[in-house]
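Sorry to interrupt, but I need a hand with the structure work. Please put the record directly below this note.
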Amino acid sequence: MATITAADVNKLRTATGAGMMDCKKALVESDGDFDLAIENLRKKGQKVAANRSDRESTEGAAIAVVNADKTAGVVITLNCETDFVGMNENFVKMATEMANQALNFDTKEAFLASDFNGITVADKLIEQTGVIGEKLEIRTFEKLEGAFVGSYIHSGNKIATLVALSANVEGAEEAARNVAMQAAAMNPIALNEAGVDAAVIEKEIEIAKDLLRQEGKPEAMLENISKGKIQRFYKDNTLVNQDYIKDSSMNVAAYVKSVDKDLIVTGFKRAALG
């Protein structure tokens, strides 16, 4: 039987993130075979993952990262079961490393299949499920490209956002961050009127008409009045039409134009836990 040293245990712990006792047990069971020990830990992760597949994973870390030339960004959520795990420094570090890797891919499927320190991202999640003892998953994966892309991560990594602007002008970085903060705080459903699903508008119009009928408004007036209420809906729920949170005298579109007269917001992505 192989002699298991503290250095062997530490090496396996560094490679997998597993606890010292789990690493020692895996090395003993593999008779000191490092690769087999890693495989045993992954099998443990598969077993734990299967047992916890029906668990709710609403905690974790929302991470947004942008590439070096500020033309593309990705936002992901690495979800777990408890806030205790989600706030852990090593968990957030892993989420950030995964987000940086996700920058290289256009789809969640391609990202999960990519190599992450010798195993796929999907297998890493299973491995860490065994290490941590909680269900782990990439719940959200959103990519955004533009002439200038900025990001914002809300305190505690609960919400992360990306914003794309039409040009990389002076002041673009601050503007993109401010608008990304707006998207985090105000949770818009679309960039502008064109981005709102027709079914949502139809439902809002019917709700408005029903309320007006209850107020005793004549049927002939309902259409025009409900149109006004829809404009209010756009103002409250679409990013560029919302009042700018740092200066309610202007909307977000006007704020961006105050930075540069030709500047517009071309897109945003938002990810939140829960």
Notes: The first helix runs from residue 6 to 16. The longest strand covers residues 72-80.
